[in-house]
Structures are given as structure tokens and as C-alpha cells.
Amino acid sequence: MSTNIGKYTLRLDKSPSITGSAAIGGKKEAEGPIGKMFDIVNYDALFGQKSWELAESEMQRQAAQKVMDKCSLSPGDIQYLFAGDLLNQIVASHYGLRELGIPFFGLYGACSTMAESLILSSMMIEGGLAKKVMAITSSHFCSAERQFRFPLEYGGQRAPTAQWTATAAGACIIAENSQPPYIKAVTVGCIEDKDIKDLNNMGAAMAPAASTTIKRYFQDTLTGPDNFDLILTGDLAQVGSDLLAELLLREGYDIKKKHADCGLILYDRATQDVEAGGSGCGCAAGVLCSYIIPAIREGKIKDMLFVATGALMSPISVQQGQNIPGIAHLLHLSSTPNPIQQGGNA
Amino acid sequence: MSTNIGKYTLRLDKSPSITGSAAIGGKKEAEGPIGKMFDIVNYDALFGQKSWELAESEMQRQAAQKVMDKCSLSPGDIQYLFAGDLLNQIVASHYGLRELGIPFFGLYGACSTMAESLILSSMMIEGGLAKKVMAITSSHFCSAERQFRFPLEYGGQRAPTAQWTATAAGACIIAENSQPPYIKAVTVGCIEDKDIKDLNNMGAAMAPAASTTIKRYFQDTLTGPDNFDLILTGDLAQVGSDLLAELLLREGYDIKKKHADCGLILYDRATQDVEAGGSGCGCAAGVLCSYIIPAIREGKIKDMLFVATGALMSPISVQQGQNIPGIAHLLHLSSTPNPIQQGGNA
Q1: CA dihedral of residues A150, A154, A155, A156 (deg, nearest 10)
Q2: Residues B191 and B62 in one domain
Q3: Minimal Cα–Cα distance from B49 to chain A, Å?
Q4: ipTM > 0.95?
Q5: Would you say B95 and A94 are in contact if contact means Cβ atoms under 8 Å apart?
Q6: What is the CATH number of the domain that holds A34?
Q7: pLDDT digits (tens, 9 = 90+) for A16-46
Q8: Which of A2, A128, A315 sits opposite B2 (nearest CB)?
Q9: Same domain membership, residue A218 and residue A267
Q10: Which residues of chain B are within 8 Å of residue A192 when distances are taken between CB atoms?
Q11: Do A27 and A134 have their domain in common?
């Protein structure tokens, strides 16, 4: 059974496993530093569909199919699907996954959705509520750009603090303890509002939430940066990463040597013209599912924190002068499971 | 521990309780048949705010505060918040609940969100993952109308199959087995796509999903309409209710004597000019939290199915010619808990 540690952290005593992952990306993602690690890349931004929205759905469909193929599973083997994306009413997920016939929980966590879906999936396994669950999310540069900013045809100039929404999807199967990565603990984030209003600076809107969630995890578990090989945020990009390091330093935690950000891993900022770095649900999902999960499985990473962050605004709320609150959800991923608790079920 | 029954139904052996509920509504809801049962009614559609979107957030804030007051709880007593609404990027929830500081899971299930949030909340309790959880959702006629249909100022004519989005919010506290209503079992819905394309006929888009989920529950549990005092859908309204009755009759289940729909309870169609009936996340939430939960607590309803339905489209997807898929999530609510299982933990 799970154990509360401190006020915000839940130790998953059964250490659910991520038994499979699949990542899909577009042309720009394929050309980036980890492009070769994606399971599927497609150089056609439309993925053979009639619209960018349907292209994003097609990415989710292919990612779901790929992870099932890799794990030799069919939809009937999976009890619940936790899915979400950035599009209004999360239609990328609804249209992309409707044919699977898997009981469906729709989520909205903005760019934190990969962590939100993994946390809920791992809680299902920990609580004995399911045997196998899928967590999946996506984003698409073209569908996001026209929904959140400008029509692509407008060719608007991008601010140096702006981030590039990844065209990518990632899917994971979560099941009972069997192989690394093991999900050893989770810290669910709270909404943080620090009066940020700049739609072109999402990193600044999300960094305070990441700082709070990481600090809470360290405090709850009496750990610090030295206990981890990697503290991986997604997607603060350069501006948000610098802010996060400073915010945590003020709290007494120097994360600089251990910190990396999915938005800075997916693209080469020097050559790929992505301003501050990558973003979008598909950024953290793509990096985790292509690059990180295999590295844990191979023992290259032993203990890490995966902290996906989301900016919780809509274009309407920003136009109405509202702040941009942020959220960050954390998972402790490890190459080894939690020790078996006395009297526990693990 | 929970027990799978059949393929789609999970019996919650610990029978989590809905220990408190609160409902808030606007002027039209206050004037309807159950208006007197709402905890808070506000005749100002703006709820003292500057925009309808902020008004909806304010409803959620007040509903959350009210249910905590009724249960003598403070935010620190609640481990997780499951919330969502109809607005793009669920901003009503994000802005309404940001000050609570409760770990937050954002959901999108369209008008099924009250059932989705209650199911996840009850699973958290059943799985020993939390002691107290809040489920909350809302909708607002004015914010929904301009997002999904036309600017209110346009004064567009409404189709007879159209539904009236409720200005309402509902919040529940879910905790360990202590008092009725008990959540005895849940059936999580799958996305159903039956080629419906009419944005003015959501009842038709959602009825097939409701039919499938109810049929699956009956098949999994070897029960039928006779086993329940009430089968309550939300929000099929008149057109969808008639379709549901016919679809289930074809499957051999005559639900007519037991069926009611939140969209037909909230308003008086004869006098309130709501076309086919009510809809919106706040419709099912408001009816459940004001009228139904107290009736179970008082023993007036002994066993019932609460089946909230959602239409999983966006205005963009409909403009692009896509179908409107539906989803329906089911909870078995009862005045008595499940019998204690041999070897169980209940």
C-alpha cells in the first residue's frame, strides 16, 4: 500500500513499472539531438491528414498503436487510458483514440499532462485498481500556434523568450512492478499564480510551480539534488530553467549540475531557431518516451525526478488580462524498486 | 480491495462515501423545479465579476468553499482536487480553485465531468491512496454560449433539439466509508462515435454512449432496471432520453419507469424556454449535489445509477466536418455499503 511522506508526497510502495514507451515526432524533432531515438518520425506535418488537428490525432493513434506493438498488447489488455493534449476540448485525444475502445479518462494539464497521466496511471496500479494502463499525450506546432497565437500564414515574429511547440506524441504502458523504470514516488502539484502575464514567456509562468513541487518533494523525502542523477523538467526551456535554478538556490538547493529540461534536449537551440527552447505536451512526452525511459532501463540513469510543468491559461483569459498560473507534477523514476515494506503488499 | 466484475465494471469493495456536497446556481436554475435545494443561488449572472468566464470561476470557488464549510474541512484536509469544466483549457477550474493550494488534477470530460471526477475520487479512496478528495465542476450559460455557439448579443434562434447550458456548479467530498451515499461500483466509459454531426443535437451524440455504458454495467453485474430505484443520466434532455430508452429497449432493457435525466429535472421545459432541456457540466453536478445526494442520505433513494454523458467535440472539429463522439461514465450510488468481502479490507 502507498505511504504518505510529508504533506505532498506519496510513496508508491509497490513501485509500478513503465513497461513500455513509444515516441513519435515530426521533421524538426527528427533533426534534433535525439531525433534518432524516436520510434516513428514523419516528415509530413499533416501526417497524411486533412488538417493539423487531425494530424495531431493521427500522432496519438500511431503512438498508442506503437507502444501496444512493442509490449505485445492489444487494446483489450489495457483497462484505462489517461490522455490529454493542448487543443480546445482535448480533441486530439478524443479523435485519435476513439477507435481503441479502452475506458477513457480525459485530462487537461497543459504541458504537464505527461506527468499528470503517469501519476494517475501509477496510482491505479499502486491501489490495485488496474493491471495495465496507458498514459498518452501530444502536441503539434501548427495546431497549437494557430489556437494560442497567430495563424501560421501571418508569419508573426517570435519573441526571444517564446518556446517552440513540439510536434510529437508519447505513450507509456504502466503495469505492476516487473522491470525498470519503477515509479517510486509522486508529488502532485498545486496551482501557483505569481502574477505572470506574458504569453510569450511561459517558462517564467511555470518555473515557480516547478520550484515549489521540487522543494516539497525534497522536504517530504529528506533528499536533495545529490540524491539524483537527473532532475528533468519539461518544458521550462532556457528562460524558465535559469529561473528555476535561481528560485531553488534561494531555498538552499543547488540543482545546476543535475538539472536538464526537455525543452532544451529536444532541439539544438544554436541551429534550430526555436528561441528559448521547446514546449508543448509532446515535448516532455517525446523526450521521456524516446530518450529517458530506455536510459533508465539500461541503467544509465539510476534515480531521477521527472517534473512536467504546465501553464494554465487560455487565449481568452490572457486577453481578459488574467495572470498565467502554472502547475508542476513530479515522479521519482528509478532503475530499482522501493524496498519491500514490513506488512506491505509489494 | 476493488474487484473487477465482468470486463468494464469495478466493484469498490470499501464503498467510499460522498460525505458532503454543495450546489450553486444562477437565476434560471433558482426558478426551476429544484431551485430551492441549491445551497447558493445568485441572481446576477456575473456573480460580481467582470466577465462570464470569471463568473464561472467564482461559482467554482464558492462551491468548493461551501462544501468544505458544510463538512467542517479546510483545504489542508483535502489531499486531491479533481476538477474540470467546458471552457477552453478548463480555465474556470484553474482560476476558481487556484487559491486553495490543494494538489490538483485537471480533467476534461465535457458534460460527463462530474461522473469522471467522482469515479477518480472514489478510486483514490478505494485504493488507499487518499483519505479525502474533492470532485468539482461547473458550466455557465453565457461563457459556454459564446465559446461553442454564437455571441449572446447576436440573439440567434435556437433549434428545438438544442439544450440550455446550466449556470451551475457542484462539489463533493469523497472519503472513506462512513455514511450514504456509498459508491458501490463504477463503469468507466469508452469513446463512442456514431457519425452524429449536428452541433444542435447533443442528446443524439451522447445517447449511444449512455446506452453502451449502462448495458455494460447491467451485463457485468447481472442486474437490470428492476434492481434500481433510479437511472439518472446527465444531460441527454428530451431528445437524448427518448433515444436512450429506445436503444436500451433494443438490447432488452426497459428503463422507462426508472429513468430520469438531469437536463429534464433542472428546468421546467413547459415554462422555462430551454428547448430540449438542460446541459453543461453544471447541470448533472447541480442536480446531483442539490437534489439527489440528500435524497439518498435520507433513504428516499436506495440504489441508483448516476450516468453523466459528454459530447467530445470542439467548435473547430465540427467546423472541419468531424463527427461528435460521446462518452458516458457510470457510478452505482446506494444508501447501503457493499457487504464486507471475505478477506477484503472493507
Answers
A1: -50
A2: no
A3: 12
A4: yes
A5: no
A6: 3.40.47.40
A7: 999 999 999 999 999 999 999 999 999 999 9
A8: A128
A9: yes
A10: 98
A11: yes
